[in-house]
Specification:
Blueprint lengths: L1 H21 L3 H12 L4 H7 L1 H13 L3 H10 L3 H4 L9 H10 L1
Helix pairs in contact: 2-4, 2-5, 3-4
């Protein structure tokens, strides 16, 4: 009986974790993709400057250009070099400062 309950609880935990990953806002994923394209370690920034990273995520989630950003990142693997995101990204100044700190 206890093993059955444990098994059900473990499966529920796995299901909720998978749902959280699948349902993660597209903007968060775009932030990570853009940072990767710029050769910025998002996990390192999140660990060292958690409040700053939360601000990046919040701006990205409130962005009105999510579709454009996704299109730019999908259409050109060299997006970081072309840097079209600078025109519309609310995080452009913050990402520039991270680039300078590298």
């Amino acid at each position: 009986m206890w093993l059955t309950l444990f098994g059900i609880t473990a499966l529920a935990a796995i299901a909720f974790t998978a749902a959280a990953i699948i349902l993660q806002p597209a903007a968060d994923l775009l932030l990570y993709r853009l940072m990767r394209a710029l050769d910025i370690d998002a996990d390192k920034v999140a660990r060292s400057e958690p409040l700053f990273f939360c601000e990046l995520e919040a701006r990205c989630q409130a962005c009105k250009s999510v579709e454009r950003c996704a299109r730019d990142l999908a259409c050109n693997s060299n997006t970081a070099a072309r840097q079209p995101w600078r025109d519309y990204c609310p995080n452009s100044a913050a990402l520039d400062s991270l680039l300078k700190l590298r």
